[in-house]
Amino acid sequence: MQRQLSQLSHLKRLGKKPKELRLAAESWDSDFKILIATIMSARTRDETTIPVAERLFKEYPTAEKLSKAKISEVKKLIRPVNFYQNKSKNIINCAKSLVQDFNSRVPHNLEKLITLPGVGRKTANVFLSELGHDSIGVDTHVSYISQKIGWTKNKDPKKIEEDLKKLFPKCHWGEINSILVRFGKTYTSKKKKDALIIGVKNEKNN
């Protein structure tokens, strides 16, 4: 466990700082905005998602307002994100579900979150960890780095999540996604990224 914590700490030092690289779930002023931005960020770069989300929230800052939005208007606003047509339907329907089923409040519970349109396990866990809960969102960065560094032999996100939960103390779960994503986004060259990961893996003082 100490070895893995040391490796995680090293990856954190190697990645850009939060001030240098904002992730899509970060720095919003409401749970609703965190969730919607996280839904839109799936398979889309954070640097694309954030300005799109800002435009969307200028028009629809609450679940109530987004729930009444015309899909054609939302499509125009979020067009730069990948799969914007499906995401437009999902975020409107998610807002409707929040209003109708949860009194316009985003639940802080994995089982309830994944009942919302557009919210899978990864999105729910990223949302929860952003709000200080002990959760691990497994996306492509977390999956790739965890396998490369030897923290897991699995490829299935849920199994990777389970492996990481066994390896790391609960108090560190919430930071794993942001550390690994920042590291992954800091190094765009796969060769450089792999060399650094292997270097961290093999470090004698870990």
Describe the structure.
The chain has helices at residues 2-14, 31-41, 46-59, 63-67, 71-78, 84-102, 110-113, 121-130, 140-149, 157-167, 170-186, 190-202. The chain has 206 residues and is mainly alpha-helical. The N and C termini lie close together (10 Å). The protein is built from 12 helices and no strands. The chain is globular and about 55 Å long. The model has no long low-confidence stretch (mean pLDDT 96).
Write a brief caption for the model.
This protein has 206 residues and is an all-alpha fold. The protein has helices at 2-14, 31-41, 46-59, 63-67, 71-78, 84-102, 110-113, 121-130, 140-149, 157-167, 170-186, 190-202.
Q: Which features would summarize this protein structure in a list?
A:
206 residues; 12 helices; single chain; mainly alpha
Q: What general form does the structure show?
A: globular
Uncertain segments are none
Radius of gyration: 18 Å
The structural class is mainly alpha
Share of helix, binned: 55-70%
- Main beta sheet: none
